[in-house]
Sequence to fold (566 residues):
Amino acid sequence: MLNRDDILRVASLAKLSLSEKEVELYKVQLSEVLNYINKLGEVNTGGIEPTYHSIQTVKNKFQSDVGMAESLSLAEVQKNAKRKSGRYIETEGVL
Amino acid sequence: MIGDFLDKLLKRKITAQESIKQYIDSIVEHDDNINSFISRNFESALSRAKEIDHIIDTSDTPASLLNEYPLLGVPIAHKDIISTKDIETTAASNVLKGYIPPYDATIVNKMDSAGAIMLGKLNCDAFAHGASGENSDFGVVKNPYDKDRVAGGSSSGSGAAVASGFTIVATGTDTGGSLRNPASFTNTVAIKPTYGRVSRYGVIAMASSLDSVGHVTRTVKDSALVLQTTAGVDSNDASSANDSVDKYLEKIEEGVRGMKIGIPKEYFVEGLDPEINQAIQDNLKILEKAGAEIIEISLPHTEYALAVYYIITPSEVSSNLARFDGIRFGESRDKFGNEAKRRIMLGTYTLSSGYYDAYYLKAQKVRTLVIEDFKSAFKKVDMILAPVTPMHPPKIGENVNDPLKMYLMDVLTVPVNLAGLPALSVPAGFSKRGLPIGLQLIGKHFDESTLYTAGYFIEQSNQLYTRRPEL
Fold:
């Protein structure tokens, strides 16, 4: 049910580069999974609200509730980056 | 176990350094055959043990040290999706190979402050995606009870390391069964606390509305003792719960008389291995004899819970794994393994324009129905008892090329995560082939205490914790 274009489109959205073999493999495997998932169509959810959060007692917390947190130092932030320059982390140009 | 250990330690029948050395020797001797550790932290562990011996030896009142250090000298290990400052944290994936976190997860901090000694980082399915341990980029973890079989997942190293005696406590996470599954496959105890009970700060996120941080131990009392340290609200985790933390050991020996235990009929359908069913029934008889009331209940939307889970989880995964861009940290996205790629793709699809309503929104509505099932059941019972997996630990390689079959392993565990409920997995029996079988106790939100009381009773009745694998 998923075709090659679906796989390529989704891979592009997800910034994943796939080999031809992977495109074929995932097309089959993901179609199987989606097929299973489609059984949700049997369930009547008219008037049912979605649940995004299972614990009702948790509410939004804002900085004013908890105060200013500690931050990482520049050195710590840059530590794991492959390319850095001065106070920056370098990346490929996108423009 | 921890109780006995602390007693010996404080009476100086053993020093922290002697104890840690024993665990290190055991890991060095046997873990090459099990592969439960990704990285070892032995030098620091010995150094910390030395500090702890110094604390004990210079204290006027050693016994009172336990107030400040309830896990004094206790050897622990963390699942490698939990950030440890200055210590490589890979999530068992090549994407994070060589990644050194600049901070500790809250659970690491808490256990460290409690005096625990960390031996290393444990192997698991990469990014916690899996139910067998076979999705690790660092090799599969072998089941100590049968090395041709998987140790379960995704917290595979956690189950195997505790079962093998390499550590007393192993932390882990449970998003769809990832603590309960390996515990039930390795004859150990695992707690999946209520969502929000234990801080997720510093834990590499899988599905943010489902992830629950817990741990594996050999005994129920050990599990309760550790939760006493790790539970509690954390200002660094906005989803952590303000609810007060119980004293988990207080009523643990009270027994099960008068407890109403629900048995969900939908969990016992055809497809459940008969030996697993028998182990559950045997334990139920013992509970009944001790005065518990066994009540059949129905959770009618159980058959849809797995589909709900396999929409919500990949959706949330695709969002959480978007941060791995190889720019600020980590390697490039082409280093993701097959399962991570599959879940990212599936989640991107189900959240994409034109499909969001049919998939993600629909799944969250059915999720409400799954939660309502539990709410109705908990009007009649105090806890629910069920098997953990429908089948025994598969042979290594059996399901790794069949993602859907692998997903079906989660069918009995995911409903708990959707509802944010706590669940305790305890040993229930062994198959004729000598494979461990676990059962899970599912409780009301924040009612881990009741699970521990029932779990302790079951453990003391069947004494399975005394059984060890031959390494």
